[in-house]
Amino acid sequence: MEEEEIKNRILHQRIAEENRKAEEAIKGTLSLVLEPKAKERLDNIRVVKPEVAQQLDIYLSQLYHSGQLKTKITEEQLVQILRKINEKREFNIKRK
């Protein structure tokens, strides 16, 4: 039983380390793609709606890594992206 607990603990530590590395990579990407005011807005969103902020993190990271971002995202552009995300969330809620 003790051996199984050790294996589980090691597994959880590895998963936590992978998650930490992924979060650091996304933070690095965000610093490359967001203008300061957009970053500030995203940080505010993170406090109020962490799940929405996480969606934005992933979406912006994907845009960057796919080469679709040519310039940094402004606060206005971030707000437009947020509106699109909210529209999709509302649609999903209505479908259920």
Overview of this protein structure:
The model has no long low-confidence stretch (mean pLDDT 88). By secondary structure, the chain is mostly helical. The chain has four helices and no strands. The chain has one domain: PDCD5, DNA-binding domain (Helicase, Ruva Protein, domain 3), CATH 1.10.8.
Question: What key attributes describe this structure?
Answer:
96 residues; mainly alpha; 4 helices
> Largest beta sheet, briefly?
none
**The named CATH superfamily:** PDCD5, DNA-binding domain
In terms of DSSP E residues, the strand content is under 5%
Q: Which topology does CATH recognise? A: Helicase, Ruva Protein, domain 3
User: Can you tell me the number of structural domains?
Assistant: 1
The overall average pLDDT, rounded, is 88
Structure at a glance:
This protein is mainly alpha-helical. 85% of the residues lie in helices and 0% in strands.
SSE blueprint and pairings:
Blueprint: H1 2-33, H2 36-48, H3 50-65, H4 75-95
Helix pairs in contact: 1-3, 2-3, 2-4
